[in-house]
User: What shape does this take?
Amino acid sequence: MTLKRKLIADMLMKYINREIDLQSLVSWAEDMLNESDFENGSFDLIKDILAHIGLADVHEFGLSWDDCYEYLRRLGYNVKVELIEA
Assistant: This one.
């Protein structure tokens, strides 16, 4: 499987929107690091982001909103937050 920047962005958005929990995101990132080929021209970027996500379950590292925002920006996306009444 070739891992593309879009899939990483989609997984980060699932985490931000609480569709998956942190442990699921961390496990996914670790699996992708070990099992995937990376999109051409994006090896260093993808490896760096996945490595950081893979450490997010360690207390000293974590995964903040700012981290997610920065990863999405580096992947080529602008983030806009909208409030929707429940």
Q: What stands out?
A: The mean pLDDT is 95. Residues 2-74 form one domain. The longest strand covers residues 2-3.
